[in-house]
């Protein structure tokens, strides 16, 4: 069963600090309100400073700090998610004000601009570089926010504190959406970013953070004005922005969720990643699914891609380590060899025969190499 039912209460985010980009309007603004209602302090970043300041005033009127000397429950800063220093400044403001950040939500987004693939484009038209603003806001913005979040979320955290990143993808992040060419590529990118990070960033030896995505279908905000009437005429379900925000608040609050994509339609939410993985051998076929699994196991957390290339000394002895093998595996090998050799020598001395020495040494090298490479 993939139905997800969010569980939230009036104190589920008590004193948590939530940073939200794209929080001045639509779903983001509803999320700001719900986080405040659940007890969190909220840092809002948005390009739209008029709506942002208006929302901030509303927050200050309705939500007050528990004690007088505490910072305000909400702060706002004009932010452009396509500008790295601007995103950084937002995190600095949140950290300076609240001394820590617990959850980060990347909700800023825009819809398709123009038609990159207009079939009336001429040889002359196609010479003009098209705008890539949609890609910049939706994908690059999410990448900037995630990167900076991955560092800030690790600071000033108490023992066992739960921290997470939540990205706004879309139905277009997993299902084809004709004519939303760049938008769809950007939202697939957002889902891909979450998938590439979910095992890496959640490792207790690394960031120890959760990361999830929300994939709303048609939600009643400015973004869907063009299709709203058609949708209603066809009697298709829509979400209110509040319903989507409730799913988002639930995901922030649920410590068991990592690597999920929540499809939201008609106010209901459905997790899609688990069944995609579980049913892979059915939709892909058993043989290719098995090969995929073996490859994934080999690559594990993928550290092989990011390990720095080391300049290697020329040596007449090759131990067969391919370029890019992570340092811990090489260290494992050398420690294994050291231990294996010393065990082999000790055993042969204890056994007291000279013949046993070369055998012990050879066995030691073999065992050490085999055990150490893991
Ligand atoms: N409304 C829907 O039907 C729907 C469906 C699927 C996904 N989504 C996604 O949900 C998220 C919220 O959408 P919404 O419908 O509430 O949209 P919205 O237009 O109501 O709100 C988006 C907010 O992002 C801000 N923004 C735009 N560019 C920015 C930038 N460069 N830097 C900072 N802020 C910027 C806008 O000012 C606005 O406040 C988006 O990521 C959107 O793609 C919406």
| Main sheet characteristics | 9 strands, mixed
Radius of gyration: 26 Å
Shape estimate: globular
- Order of strands, main sheet, comes to 1-9-8-7-6-5-2-3-4
Give the low-confidence spans. 315-334, 352-358, 368-374
Mean pLDDT: 87
Number of strands: 9
CATH homologous superfamily descriptor of the largest domain: NAD(P)-binding Rossmann-like Domain
> Structural class, judged by helices and strands?
alpha/beta
Helix content: 40-55%
Write down the CATH topology of the largest domain: Rossmann fold
Give the strand content: 5-15%
Number of domains: 2
**N-to-C span:** 37 Å
Overall description:
Helix content is 47%, strand content 11%. It folds into two domains: 3-282, Rossmann fold, CATH 3.40.50; 307-374, no CATH class. The protein has 374 residues and is an alpha/beta fold. It is built from 13 helices and nine strands. The structure holds nicotinamide-adenine-dinucleotide. Residues 21-22, 24-28, 46-48, 79-82, 107-110, 137, 141, 168, 170, 216, 218-219, 221-224, 241 line the site of nicotinamide-adenine-dinucleotide.
